[in-house]
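**Discrete fold encoding**
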Amino acid sequence: MSFAHVLVLAGGLSYERDVSLRSGRRVLDALRLAGLDAEQRDADVTLLPILTATPPDAVLISLHGATGEDGALRGVLELTGVPYVGPDARAARLAWDKPTAKAVLRDNNLPTPDWITLPQETFSELGAGALMTQIIDRLGLPLMVKPTQGGSGLGAQVVREASELPAAMVGCFAYGGTALIERFVTGVDIAVTVLDLGDGPVALPAVEIVPANGVYDYTARYTAGVTTWHAPARLSEEVTERVAEIAVATYKALGLRDLSRVDLIVDAGGDAHVLEANVSPGLTETSLVPMAIEAAGLDFGEVLSKLVQVAIDRKS
């Protein structure tokens, strides 16, 4: 693989730019340690001329937020014919929109918390008070409010009392025009990395997330010392197997490929509930995918190197 020239895309203009740059730096270092010729670039006006004039052998996307996950950039890469690691544009679009992805999961009999979506315009035009009463009557309390698109826990808030819902909606709308309001499931936060190196998708050891404040928000994700992780997760053998099966089934239902992360909650009864799937998961020093790779006894750089080769082979 020393011959391969890999372009790592990181940065972008989303709220998650800082996280993306941290992911990109770690990916770049790992690829170089694995013997690849790698460079890092932002997704800006210089990108397309580079892709057409001196195309790399493969692209590895470390962009988070819309730029890296809504499928648009992947569609551009497909136009240029440059192979890239990760789900294709169609699957990325599907996973990026949480309500749409949840509907697909329900259609495939996969467990996900009940939900409704509410655009900001509807929230304003029909009257916030009446709508919030209907929401609570329908879904009960507690609730999780978060943007329908986006990641890193930005704009997400747990609502335990009816009086907290208005502020949570306003905070959510600061990051997106439509809110996803879903029944909050009390339990253990679990992240399962699904990896396919060419022989079919496999669930790596689940990572258990224990945030100090009880909520895995942006601060808990990216501030050292605020969250404790257990890899593998402290689950029974039966629940571990079931969580892995659901994660792989989610990956297949959404049409994902190469590497993705499925986030779930395991309730007190041992039942797993899928929250979302991430097509461009964080790869920073406190991110979950590298933890899962290490827990599986694999080398981060070697895994990335093999994924690059898979992408190159896919083109040929």
